[in-house]
## 1
Amino acid sequence: MSRSLYKGPYIDEKLLKKIAGKKPGEGGVIKTWARGSVISPEMVGFKFGVHNGRDHIEVLVAEEMVGHKFGEFSPTKKFHRHGGKMQKELEQKKKAAEIAAAKAAKTTK
């Protein structure tokens, strides 16, 4: 649900202080825990380290990101893979194909 119009977008004041007086590309990564903060046009070109609960993920702010929130560009969950019998069979076929390709490449040399 979006924020009401009369309140305006939420932008963390600490972030604005950190980028005040700096030029884009100057300095290093600006670390932030404010995932709910909206990206403003003043932030374009800066590199932010957005916390995902474990570590900081580097995000280079582009023009297309203005209006979105920092949390959208720093996923908190890591996809491992779907399991099951069918997945195991697919992985075995893929591994066998790689081994066959490596043997074929070795014999042609």
Note: The mean pLDDT is 90.
## 2
Amino acid sequence: MFEEVRGIMAKTLDLDEESLKPETNIKSDLDIDSLDLVEFVSEVEDHFGIMIPQDGLENISTVGEFAALVEQLAK
């Protein structure tokens, strides 16, 4: 799941896929704004056929935590 999420993130946000690690902090390590984040979340929702609740994102800080949330919602 992490690999798929990382690939979508890299493509959507024009980032180097290899630089995205599970511990990469989405807000402080990546130079993205809130619009980029909304676009990325939308791409993930479309790809996996899920809906990520806004309050589900509040406690997510790393790429690994986001991938775990997606995995949980995709079950």
Note: The longest helix spans residues 34-48.
